[in-house]
Design goal:
Helix content is 32%, strand content 29%. The strands form two sheets. A five-stranded antiparallel beta sheet has the order 2-6-5-4-7. With 228 residues, the chain is an alpha+beta fold.
Length: 228
């Protein structure tokens, strides 16, 4: 299954679930006792892409104001979840420089690469902007990171949930049942194949993050440029 077919399958399944009233709200969003933290390498789309996404989210917010919307500070594409979020994890549990070393070694020779953002997909719990790789730089980086960090002996839990193969950006999470399901479905249909634009990826960010990359709970530990 190619990437577009994968996105299509996700979307069709999610829309079917939405119509059945079987969405899956995340009860942990805004939970005061949520101490889950992790370590992620992520990239940020260009501002023009983010601005276009925000127009879509403004329309969605008008229909479903009580859901969780990502802002320009936390819209991202996950390169790799190095340590998947778990209760009590702290940056004091690791040596950040050791991870930066492995990331820089993994980046050697890859250089900048481009992502195209086009259309939306969904799961029963969230809405995502579809990202597509124009070159193999992102997949090459992910594979090198898996190999190098695994060999390093550093704390990691890479790919325990799933092997990341997409380049999507989650932009909306459901906190509760939909109040205007039909309106939101019409909006999703309108933006199903929308052209969000193209991003040239020139750096990645190593971050300490909560599950949702909320700005007030996420710290950028290191920005690492992709060298030509």
């Amino acid at each position: 299954m190619d990437l577009q077919e994968h996105y299509n399958s996700m979307y069709d399944n999610a829309v079917r679930r939405f119509k059945e009233g079987a969405c899956e709200p995340d009860a942990w969003i805004d939970a005061a006792g949520d101490s889950r933290m992790g370590l992620t390498l992520r990239l940020r789309p260009d501002r023009q892409v983010v601005n276009r996404i925000q127009h879509f989210l403004d329309a969605a917010r008008g229909l479903e104001p009580n859901q969780y919307f990502y802002g320009e500070e936390n819209i991202h594409v996950t390169v790799l979840s190095i340590i998947s979020c778990y209760p009590g994890f702290s940056v004091s549990d690791i040596v950040v420089a050791d991870y930066v070393k492995e990331i820089k070694e993994s980046l050697a020779g890859i250089g900048t690469f481009n992502l195209t953002f086009r259309g939306i997909t969904a799961s029963p719990s969230c809405i995502m902007v579809q990202g597509f790789m124009e070159e193999d730089g992102l997949e090459m980086l992910r594979q090198r990171l898996r190999e190098n960090i695994a060999k390093s002996g550093l704390q990691q839990s890479m790919d325990q949930r799933y092997t990341l193969q997409t380049a999507h950006a989650t932009v909306l999470r459901l906190k509760q049942k939909m109040e205007n399901r039909d309106g939101l479905l019409q909006l999703l249909d309108k933006y199903r194949n929308n052209d969000w634009g193209r991003s040239s990826v020139t750096e990645v960010e190593l971050v300490l993050n909560d599950w949702y990359h909320q700005p007030d709970r996420t710290s950028v530990l290191k920005r690492i440029p992709l060298l030509e």
